[in-house]
Amino acid sequence: MSVKDKAKQAQEKMSETARAAREKMGDAYDGARDKTAAAYGTAREKAIAAYDSSRSSARNAKAKTGEGIQESPLLALGGGLALGMILGALLPRSEREKKALSDVGTKLNQRAHSAYDAARDAGKSTLEEKGITTSAAENVVRDVVKGLGSAARRSADAATQAVKK
């Protein structure tokens, strides 16, 4: 074999090796591209699901809050007032505020106490008019507890009898 033939053979072998390397690189690239596309699709689906879940949770929380406010507006008002008072207590007062609001704070405190007393008295009298007193509530709770105890005993007796049969 001549040098020319050996060179040509070496060239062909190099070309074949290069072609095989290109093919392997292409396969590896295709595999990586497919895995990346699959990972992207999965991540996208999970992100959409998380977003939908968050929206649903927020919607439910909004509905429950609205229902809670409709069912107990005074409780919601009290909660809002309490939150406002907490925030107000946490914020520091300036000297200017102290000077300007010293008399207002005293008057406001007196009015708040008067409003609280009036609301408490009106609530008590309304409950008493409807027959809802502390002793009546205690009697209802006592009856419920007795009923639950009786039901539990009867259930246990029935289960014992069923096992014996």
Describe this structure in words.
This is ElaB/YqjD/DUF883 family membrane-anchored ribosome-binding protein. Residues 1-29 are annotated as: Disordered. The protein is an all-alpha fold. The chain has 3 domains: 1-70; 99-130; 133-165. The protein is built from 4 helices and no strands. Helix 1 (3-71) crosses helix 2. The radius of gyration is 40 Å and the shape is elongated. The termini are far apart. The mean pLDDT is 82.
Observed structural traits:
165 residues, mainly alpha, 3 domains, 4 helices, 93% helix
Percentage of residues in DSSP E strands: under 5%
Shape from CA axes? elongated
How would you sum up the major sheet? none
Q: Detail the poorly predicted runs.
A: none
Termini separation: 103 Å
Number of helices: 4
User: Strand-and-helix sequence, N→C?
Assistant: HHHH
Overall strand count: 0
What class, by secondary structure content? mainly alpha
Radius of gyration: 40 Å
Helix residue percentage: over 70%
Residue-averaged pLDDT: 82
Integer count of domains: 3
Briefly, what is this?
With 165 residues, the chain is an all-alpha fold. The protein is built from four helices and no strands. It folds into three domains: 1-70; 99-130; 133-165.
Helix-strand blueprint:
Layout (H helix, E strand, L loop, with lengths): L2 H69 L1 H18 L4 H35 L4 H31 L1
Helix pairs in contact: 1-2
Protein name: ElaB/YqjD/DUF883 family membrane-anchored ribosome-binding protein
